[in-house]
Amino acid sequence: MAEKSQNSTIDPEDVIKILVASDIHLGHNEKDVIRGEDSFVAFEEVLQHALENDVDAVILGGDLFDIANPTTNTLNRCTRLLKTYMLGDKPIKLEFLSDQNENFLESLTQTVNYEDPNMNIAIPVFSIHGNHDDPSGFGRISSLDLLSTNGYVNYFGKWTDLSKININPILLKKGETKLALYGLSYISDPRLARLFNEAKVFLEKPEDAGWFNIMVLHQNRADRGPKNYLPEKSLPGFLDLIIWGHEHDCRIVPEENPTKKFYVSQPGSTVATSLAEGESIDKCCGILSIYKKQFRLDPIRLQTVRPFIFESINLAHLVDELQLDEGDAQAKVQSFAADKVEEMIERAKEKLTGNEKQPKLPLIRLRLEVTEVAQQFNQIRFGQQYSGRVANPQDMITFKRKISRVKDECKPLDKDALNQAYQNQRETAAKRAEEVVERYFKEAGENKQLEILSSKSMTELTRRMVDYEDDDAAENIIRFYEKQAMKYLEGFTVVEDNIEEILLKFHAQERDTHNEMLKMLDNRSHRRVDPNDRSRSIVDDEDDKDEPKTTNTRANITTTNRGGGRGSRGGRGSRAPSRGRGRGKGAASSSVSNIDSFFNSTVKPEKRSSGRNVSKVVYISDDDDD
User: Fold this and answer.
1) How far apart are CA 547 and CA 544, in angstroms?
2) Which DSSP category does 106 fall into?
3) d(Cα 53, Cα 359) in Å, to the nearest integer?
4) Cα 50 vs. chain centroid, distance in angstroms?
5) Sequence-ordered alpha helix ranges (H) in 118-159
6) Is there a catalytic annotation at residue 28?
7) How far apart are CA 273 and CA 355, in angstroms?
8) Low-confidence spans in the chain with pLDDT less than 70
9) Can you give the pLDDT at residue 439?
């Protein structure tokens, strides 16, 4: 398809403008006195940018909510913001061309919300769900279903039959620009990898040419182990742009895939949900401008995000400088950490934007890599002196210890005890994996028991991973026991000679610790699934390695004629004509003489990034290797 030259005229009525954001995590830490407002403040700024830039739509890449069953406070705050910024009398210039019964099969009206005569939408929001707000519980309902029922969000890309996935795009048109929007809500990465390997993922294409193809998905992008992420090469090459949710580090400027030639934009999160290095990158949303087969995505740095400074230091490189081999290593490391934290607090002030809604207390995370236990100090007690100066005084410092013990000191697996436990399991016809774990610890000798965790905790961990497919169980239980052990050790003067004796006392109160652990896990019950429902599993967010081997990643293109668009909206009096094929009342009719000058003037308040041109559509056939 021939493109217009750089000197050709372009009508703004032919350009689709979309605000792009992802991983809002509304309600994160909402009960925290200091950080409880952060997610709502950032989301409001995102919606304000949509309004100020006069966009045609908003696309969200999943995880609008932090948990699957958000509190009534979070739901109320969300609907208030959507009602404030997304409703109004502005004419909508997007013509809907596809079969809405297929695109919004499970919605109340089975129509896009701006064609619902009972709604007064000014800016339509299109969203998939992520792993945090995915359907759960009785009826498999997501919090996005509630927003869809109330008409605030167009919820698409939801799949109930995971034996195969057939994605029918939402087809939108504005002037001469045609947009095909594909949605793939979160599916457990191992399951999705298997579906791609078995060629059971199908993307239907419009029959006619000239469509700009966008896919919105929410999966692991980084290599996180065999079949535990979605390789970009698995996606069909006819796509022009991928909006990739789930990953929290902001890489919103489109990156071209060298093999498939499509671009990938990773908006990242709008609020820091963990104190990881990727979360310290500036948070952004973006304005996507599409003209026929050309597009441009301009990042907008969010001005209301809490400052976050992350730094990791390996003390092995500072042994001589700090004289750690000359005694009193703990005091020296603590003094070094205090100086470093002061420096980080000063650096955080550089991230203050002057916005009155931006939180002033920064998040600080200093990770110290130590080689000896003697170099560690009490992080909680250390952080108390920074209360009122940082937002997270209790967990500013974290230690990462490089284990230097020889291999013989590690406690080996008692193979005889494990075989005996498995044999007992077979003889008694027990069918539960946790019973094998429980019997293993009974059969193993005293010197094969765990130092921090208990046999009960390992049994509970196994039960939750098997019955509920809860991959977060291991991290949650280990982190809980680590905190409990550290809290218990605070009351003792710990040296190498007495550590084992103190840990034995810690194990003596196992019953109380185990009960508290169960309460903690129950408070996270939103992550559970029905044990009889194997249609989903929760996948952890931590990084692993290895790439799954994909055998066939074709798109299985079906040429389906979507038919004509919907006529005028009808209903609400004078608003009706603006919903049909016309450009709407009050629409701008001026032309811009140069494509670059148009794109350079289309985004407020910041103008970044050079234009990205996609000049052709690559069709995937059965003969394509990737």
Assistant:
1) 10
2) T
3) 24
4) 21
5) 143-149
6) no
7) 21
8) 1-8, 402-451, 466-469, 471, 490-501, 507, 511, 524-626
9) 65
Q: At what angle do helices 455-467 and 510-523 cross, to 10 degrees?
A: 20
Element (H, E) at 523: helix 510-523
Residue 186 has phi, psi (to 5 degrees) of -60, 130
Read off the tokens for 308.
Answer: 């976050």
Q: Give pLDDT tens digits for 372-410.
A: 888 999 999 999 999 999 999 999 999 987 654 444 445
Q: How many angstroms separate the CA atoms of 268 and 273, rounded?
A: 11
DSSP designation for 226: T
Half-sphere exposure (CA, 13 Å, Cβ side) for 444? 19
pLDDT of residue 432: 63
Of residues 103, 98, 60, 112, the one with CA closest to residue 243: 60
Q: Are 360 and 352 in contact (CB under 8 A)?
A: yes
Say if residues 97 and 564 touch (Cβ distance below 8 Å).
yes
Structure tokens at 123: 């800016």
Q: Which residue in the block uniquely carries the two structure tokens 């009050």?
A: 586
What's the rounded Cα separation, in Å, for the pair 117 and 137? 32
SS3 502: helix
DSSP symbol at 488: H
pLDDT of residue 197: 87
Q: What is the pTM of this model?
A: 0.68
From CA 318, how far away is CA 340, in angstroms rounded? 13
Select which of 28, 132, 218, 246 is catalytic.
132
CB atoms within 10 A of CB 5: 8
- Cα(218)–Cα(248) distance, rounded to whole angstroms? 11
- Which secondary structure element, helix H or strand E, spans residue 263, and what is its range? strand 263-266
| Contact between residue 289 and residue 17 where contact means Cβ atoms under 8 Å apart | yes
Ramachandran class of 127: left when φ > 0, alpha when ψ lies in -120 to 50, beta otherwise: beta
Q: How far apart are the first and last CA of the chain?
A: 24
pLDDT computed for residue 212 by the predictor: 97
